[in-house]
Amino acid sequence: MNNKITKxxxxxxxxxxxxxxxxxxxxxxxxxIIDKPLIQYAVEEARGAGIEDFIFVxxxxxxxLLEAHFGENKTLNATLADRQKTxxxxxxxxxxxxxxxxxxCTQDQPLGLGHAVWCARDFIDAGESFAVILPDDLIQATPxxxxxxxKVWQDRGxxxxxxxxxxxxxTNRYGILDVTEDDGRIATACGLVExxxxxxxxxxxxxxxxxxxxxxxxxxxxxQQTGAGGEIQLTDAISKTIEDVAFHGLRFDGLRFDCGxxxxxxxxxxxxxxxxxxxxxxxxARLKRHL
Length: 291
Ligand code: G1P
Fold this sequence. Notes:
The protein is of the alpha/beta class. It has a single domain (7-281), classed as Spore Coat Polysaccharide Biosynthesis Protein SpsA, Chain A. The chain is built from ten helices and 13 strands.
């Protein structure tokens, strides 16, 4: 087994309908939490976990914006340097991903998360394991969530996903584990169900948008079978590998914000503002006016 994972897939072709009209011209992964777009948090988390190649599965509009954000802007850099804005220049440079480590492929139809990952198949070598990050799920954690998962993967191999317990009435929003063993931190599963009705859910342990996947998942994604909601589900393809590939869910240390929802997005902004020491007391005082 190769003991290093160097590639991450970001499925970012979604329409972001819940945030329209904000997401009409700005794709949802470019929405900022304070001073960085969601996608940058995801890239930084991946980089912190040792990822070297960043593969974006895009729609019609967003490749150009992602290239602009992660590419080098010589005019901006020169202006910042001229004005001796060294801190700003450093932050801009930290955000860049240089060629040849940035890659794009297109998902031209909204056929589901499994389909989005399948669209990136040509970037993954035979037998290679890789990471998937859904930038909507923003995780505040040190070390980052993917780094925590890498440790589990180095010990146990197979598929590793981030998990969280959710209230039973919310199982129909997540991929849910059919748990066989659980030590309170790492759960082993013998199956997965995508968005089950609460009454039918095998547990309340749900998949959060972080995956380390064995390349054999493509054997099943290749078949393009549809599942819940008529979409090609990543959860179903992973579940079909479970007899051959061990499956572990990690309850990571950290806070997850569902930035695909209005309340989660607001909470993330508050949490990341409060985490900036020079802003904390001002933000706290202003929040009091509303609470
Ligand atoms: C996707 C996955 C689901 C997972 C969730 C995590 O669902 O299909 O299994 O639990 O992400 O955020 P989506 O949120 O795209 O509907």
